[in-house]
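Might I ask for a little of your time on a matter of protein folding? Here, with my thanks, is the record as I have it:
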Amino acid sequence: MGALRLAVFASGQGTNFQALADAVQQGGLDATIELLVCDKPSAPVVERAKKAGIEAFVFKPKDYPSREAYETEILVELERRGVELIVLAGYMRIITPVLVEPYYGRMINIHPSLLPSFPGVNGIGQALEYGVKVTGVTVHYVDGGLDSGPIIAQRTVEVLEGDTEASLAERIHAAEQQLLPQVAQWIAQSKVTLNGRHVTLSK
């Protein structure tokens, strides 16, 4: 079996994109990153892709009449490259059925909380405000709902006395950068099975 063909969707700094690219380069992820998809032309992740020699499809949502319109264009780009897995790594756009349906079970997202707690925007701030003692990160399949898809893997992060959003975020992001390439590798090794809402990992 050849290397898994990935597309990474990101909107910001691109630290999770970098973690995936580094894992590929270092031999810890049996995959190739075929494409970066980014909705913000000035996002630092675009420069990261350029430095890594990875093609980017960069667009401005306001240039399109609807989400479906730009996703239709993205779908063409994905199919042209034979993309087998979409990884949402800090992509701040709602995904419509245009992408969810053809890629269901082949699209994963990383979220900075222990889902189903604190879905949506600012999961780190939500956890701090609520006063939980433990939070973490979740990698899950995308099902079209708000961070509601079947959970593949989670890692816990302790909330420390005196934590600020910035200090907690630093540890959350470190956990993300370890977990996301690990899950992608499990998928590349065909170790992940999805059955309804339940995900099993084979050894």
